[in-house]
Structures are given as structure tokens and as C-alpha cells.
Amino acid sequence: MEARLSVSRAAATGVLLMAAVGAQAQYQIGRLAADDGVRVDRFGWAVAVTSDTGVVGAPYADPVGQNSGAAYVFGVVGGEWAQTTKLVPSDGRADDLFGYAVGIDSGTICVGSRNESELGEQAGAVYVFEPLRTGWTQVAKLVAADGASYDHFGCSVALSGDVMVVGAQDKDLGGVDRGAVYLFERIAGVWTQVASFADPDPQNDQHFGACVAVSDETAVVGALADNDSAFYVFERVGGVWSPTAHFRGRGARVGVSGDVILAGAPKDDPFGALSGAAFVFERVDGAWVFTQRLLAGDGAAYDEFGTSVSVRGEAMIVGARGHENYAGAAYFFGRVGGVWVPTAEVTAIDHSESDSFGWSASLAGDAALVGAPNSRDAQGSAYVFGMAPCLADFNADYHADTRDVLAFLNAWNAGDSSADWDQNGVIDTRDLLAFLDDWVAGC
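Now predict its structure.
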């Protein structure tokens, strides 16, 4: 079964779709930027979010040397998203690319520094931060037990409670750039490597570990070969991690939540070269099975739908960084009656060509975070979307702005039933005042 999003952006279509889905709407709350950002920082290269905290990687920022990298923490302050902390490693140096990957969960942030060189040139490392009394503080630095030059450990990271998964996509294990993945667990407060895996189907240039995701006792690892893609499932049973499933040709940009895996395949060609697709897998009676293909209803060549993916509970997001000359877009899906259906297509309200909005995406609770690392001369941006219905968005274009006021006034002047804001059967000035109150409150 396929799910496609209608190209129509008419208000009626949006409202009816949301009502039929029973899902929450998505509204842009604001644009996030580094308070010290400059061009080519590529802020938004990696993003991760909880309901009230976001972390954004800027691996090409220069806090302690060219391309040393940084990560920025944002929180909800006085009802608004605002930068609260800038993270840099204690031993950072030029070309480390700290911020290349980020993860957040349960009061812990992990940041990949794929070119860090403690164990050899570009061997890689991951830094762990926790919110101590003085704010977000580095509490650990993790490296692979068998780390070596050019492994790029930390090119991908994922965090779920006391479990962390780290990819090293270019590790040479019996061949060139085959890749590896490492699992860490927080034991008595200390992050400890408990397992590592090579590609179960080893091939040169497979880049196993380029993408990772984890949810409780399930880890998913993507392999981004030049001419193919695959992902592998690892599960912890009886305290031991072991491979349980793999799928080839079904995408490698991965997300997982409970019994659902979402895999993005931006190189697929349903609407032309690199138009992209995403695939849903579900755990049924203990076995992982393919259940659905997701497509963009307005898909076109070079959209790269599936560039990024994230799934949490009953919601999914899929990034398409190439949409409309690489301005980019992101697509939301919700599950109704066991079927994933489209709920919204969103773009940055200030989008322009080559922004690559959708390069990265993360979903959690009632918030979504989407990165656009090439926006504003590659200084980069990230955008927060709320997952709760927004009364201010009268025209259902997923942005609350003056156009909503104009749309409401047109409906009010025409006596349209949609302008009966207080739902008392009479359209009068009280409806206008009630709508304006909601519009001022915003999203």
C-alpha cells in the first residue's frame, strides 16, 4: 500500500485531511539559528529534539579552529524556543567536525565528532553531555575499542535511555570502507561499549553504520553503498545484542519507534531519477515485515524524498532536501487504522533555492525539528514545528501569519460558516474578536 500527499494546499483540503486522519497538525513555530553563526557553519546539518529541548549540529563552525564544529542547545524559555547553550568538546581542534551527528534523550545529549583523531587521523569520537548545576556539561568522551584512522566513528549517533548506537561508516574490516557499528550502555552511570558489529553482508564501500537509530531494545543500522542501500536490525534479548533481520534495496536512512521502522530511500526513482521513497516495516508476531511504501504526492526527479526520516509513536516525518530546486520540504504522516496516511507538507516560511530544508529531521512528543544547513550562504537554519492544532492558521497553510487574518476577514464578510468562530450560529463581531484573540496567541 502506498500513501501519497495531495499536491493541493487549499484550506478545505487541509482541514478535511486532518479531520479524517484524526492526527495533529504541524505548524511552524520559529526559525532557530546560532547566536554566533557565520556563513558556511552549516548549522542544521544534524538535529535531534524532545518535546522541549532541541540540539543542532554545526560541524563546519570554527570555535577552536577551522571546521572544529559546535552544537547548539535550544529550550523553551518563556513559551518561546531560544538558544540556551553552545557545546564544544574539551579537546576540540580544527577539522574535527564536532556536531556532524547529534542525539538527545532522557536528559542526555551525544554529539559525534567524526574526524577527531585521538586513536588516529579521523578515527572519530562521541562526546556525552548532561545538564548539571552549571548547565549542559561534558561528562564523557567515547571512542571505539578498536578505533583506527579514517574509521569516522561518530558519523552517526542515536540515543534511547541508557543505550547509545554509534556508526563508523568507513572502518576497514577485511576490506575498504565496509563500516561498523558500536553499542554502548550506561551502566552504573558510566557509558561502556558492550558490543560491536561489522556488516553482516560485507562489501567494499558499503558504509555500514552511515545511519543509525535505536528504540529501547531495537537498533537499526543503515548501509549507504554507492549503488545500493540496505539496513539491518539488531535486538537485545537476555541482555545480549544480536542481528535479527536485514533488508536490501529498501532504503538506509533509518528511524525506529517501538514496533515500527521507517527507512528513507532518496535514490529511488518512482517519479524520475532521485525522486525518492520511504518504506515502513513493522514487527508482527516477532518478525519484521514490509507493510507500506510512502511517496510524496508532488514528487519529482531530484527531490530526494527520504533524505531524512524520523518516527515517534503515531507520527512520521520524511525530508526531501531536493524539492523545488533544493529549497527542500518535509512531509508528515500519521497512522490511522493501521495505515500510514499523509497529514502535511511543510517548507520553511523563508525558503529559497539550495537551502536543503529536510537535510535532517527529528520528531518527538509535540515538536518536530528540521534542518536546512545550506540556507543563508550555508550559515544554516533549523525550524521548529508544533504538533498541536493551531487555531491561528485559518487558511491551513501550516504558517500563522497575516494571510490568515485576511482569509478570515474574507470569510467573515461573506458570511461563510467557517467564520462562526464561537459556533453559536450567528456570524458577528464577537467571532472576529474571538479569532483575533486566537491569532494573537499564535501557535
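The chain has a mean pLDDT of 90.
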